[in-house]
Design brief:
It is a single chain. By secondary structure, the chain is α/β, with parallel strands linked by helices. It has two domains: 277 residues, Rossmann fold (3-Layer(aba) Sandwich); 248 residues, 3-Layer(aba) Sandwich (Rossmann fold). 36% of the residues lie in helices and 22% in strands. A nine-stranded mixed β-sheet has the order 13-12-14-15-23-22-21-18-19, with helices on both faces. It is globular. The N and C termini lie far apart (77 Å). Bound molecules: glutamine. The site of glutamine has 10 residues, from β19.
Length: 553
């Protein structure tokens, strides 16, 4: 297949945002890969930030960090998870990056004499970044480009124009335009409505793009008559109008698409012959996700618990780990600000595990520390991630080592016991964008640890995003009182993993394991954390049964 030309799929969205363009792109990537093709996926984000690293979770949800340290859109997480391929900074391109490159060149004098304009300069730069993926890691059969935003947005126009030109510049069989739209169901009328889709495609055609395949997000089955109507008004054959019905798990989406021969239609347009995909592994995964043998409860105690997109990869990692343990993980979202001293039992008294995620800022930190105290003392499984590890260190220092005012230098500068402090190489940094310790770094793991049991290896590579670290001046004091430092950077300077003694499963890590979990290969730490929670849940039920049989008095 290596002598083949690279073909381009463009996915745009219409009507409303959040229809699942990222999942649709990732699903197509998976289907094509399962058909033996090499694929790569690119997210084009029209905003002017260079990357989402400086945006808060309200604006952007999770910031997804890649091995190479780039801070990217959370859709990259879907791409990596579905296509099972590691992405790099070239897989996420923003308007900010495009303009930054052009303005740098303009200042250098590269355009001397010319007026620098959206067409051709911005559009050429966009096309260059799409085509770059074709040769990045050897030959790629199909590049899928997802255009962020919704058709009609002013800021996405240069991207639309760039992909329109790519359609024009390539042979008809080299590109396919797919438009994801909404077909709403109006309860009072008992009808699915096609007008928003018609208008959305009309807007697309006004800027010169005629989609060849429509993915119609819907809550109800799209009958042939509706598909015919949409096809007629949008100039698309009705078999190219594909139902994208709401699914109970995102991992079912590619299977549902395939029922409507989605990848066949794409390959037909691109004139590629490839065998049907073998989806057995995914069918098995979906069947466990939908019908597991047991259920457990894990609390996530954080600051943005009402904003699930902020914890996207953690949620997915629990789905993967749940599937491997044949268990449904019911997540209990607890706002850390609600937990006051001595009051954790009310919120997490009946859970089988606690996860403290990463985060920034002091709000809610005391509640996190208090909830860690509760699960440490009550021997409930625990996983702490990044800020979660900082909180675990503070909790141990205060409640086990007696360092009453132990805290993190991130929140207070004038501390008697800064058990977490600023990394030395962060001290003189003043710019906030892209300056944390970011991306993949190795960690060396001690054999006598939960972490080693999980990984089965003494050297691992994990992704990071932080400025603060375990203060080495407190190593001796904390380990003397039992805390175990079981994971270190290879030069032993940075603590990467801590564990508590006399506990069924207590692991806190400086990195973000959730970013490397994959659907059919759950992250080892999440897998073992869920396994420990399942065990805890079983023991608890057995104890309750015994109590019920032998009531006191
Ligand atoms: N705010 C902390 C730091 O910068 C933790 C970051 C995180 O949890 N990702 O080190």
């Amino acid at each position: 297949m290596a002598d083949r030309k690279t073909k381009y799929v463009f996915i745009t969205g219409g009507v409303v945002s959040s229809l699942g363009k990222g999942i649709a792109s990732a699903s197509l990537g998976l289907l094509l890969k399962k058909r033996g093709l090499s694929v790569n996926i690119l997210k084009l984000d029209p905003y002017l930030n260079v990357d989402p690293g400086t945006m808060n979770p309200f604006q952007h949800g999770e910031v997804y960090v890649l091995d190479d340290g780039s801070e990217t859109d959370l859709d990259l997480g879907h791409y990596e998870r579905f296509v099972n391929q590691s992405m790099c900074s070239d897989n996420n391109v923003t308007s900010g990056q495009i303009y930054q490159a052009i303005i740098t060149r303009e200042r250098r004098g590269d355009y001397l004499g010319a007026t620098v304009q959206v067409i051709p300069h911005v559009t050429e730069e966009i096309k260059k970044s799409i085509k770059k993926l074709a040769t990045l890691n050897g030959h790629v059969d199909v590049i899928i480009s997802e255009i962020g935003g919704t058709v009609g947005d002013i800021e996405s126009l240069p991207f639309m124009e760039a992909i329109r030109q790519m359609g024009l510049e390539n042979d008809d069989h080299d590109t396919v335009f797919i438009h994801l739209t909404l077909v709403p169901y109006i309860e009072a009328a008992g009808e699915l409505k096609t007008k928003p889709t018609q208008h959305s495609v009309k807007s697309l055609r006004e800027i010169g793009i005629q989609p060849q395949i429509l993915l119609c997000r819907t809550a109800k089955t799209l009958e042939e008559s509706i598909r015919k109507k949409i096809g007629l008004f949008c100039s698309v054959p009705s078999r190219n109008v594909i139902e994208a019905i709401d699914a109970s798990t995102i991992y079912e989406v590619p299977l549902l698409f395939e029922q409507h021969e989605f990848s066949d239609l794409v390959l037909e347009k691109l004139d590629i012959q490839a065998p049907k995909p073998d989806m057995t592994e995914w069918e098995d995964l979906v069947s466990v996700i939908k019908g597991p043998s047991r259920r457990i409860k894990i609390a996530i105690c954080g600051k943005y618990v009402f904003l699930k997109d902020a914890y996207k990869s953690i949620i997915e990692a629990f789905t993967h780990a749940g599937a491997e343990n044949d268990a449904r993980v019911d997540l209990v979202w607890v706002s850390s600000e609600d937990i006051k001293h001595g009051g954790a039992a009310k919120f997490i008294g009946d859970v089988d595990g606690l996860l403290i995620p990463g985060g920034f800022g002091e709000r809610g930190v005391e509640g996190k520390i208090e909830s860690i105290r509760y699960i440490r003392e009550n021997k409930i499984p625990f996983l702490g991630i990044c800020l979660g590890m900082h909180c675990a260190t503070i909790e141990y220092a205060r409640n086990v080592c007696g360092l009453e005012d132990a805290h993190s230098y991130e929140f207070y500068r004038d501390l008697k016991h800064p058990v977490i402090h600023l990394m030395a190489d962060q001290e003189n940094i003043t710019e906030l964008g892209g300056t944390m310790r970011l991306g993949a770094y190795p960690a060396i793991i001690e054999k006598d640890s939960f972490a080693y049991k999980a990984y089965g290896e003494t050297e691992v590579s994990e992704r990071h995003r932080h400025r603060y670290e375990f203060n080495n001046e407190y190593r001796e004091m904390l380990t003397k009182d039992g805390l175990k430092l079981v994971g270190m950077s290879p030069d032993s300077k940075l603590v990467e993993i801590i564990e508590a003694p006399d506990h069924p499963w207590y692991v806190a890590v400086q990195f973000h394991p959730e970013l490397k979990s994959r659907p059919t290969r759950a992250h080892p730490l999440f897998r073992d954390f869920v396994a420990a929670a399942v065990k805890y849940n079983k023991q608890k039920s057995e104890e309750n049964e015994i109590k019920a049989k032998n009531p006191v008095g």
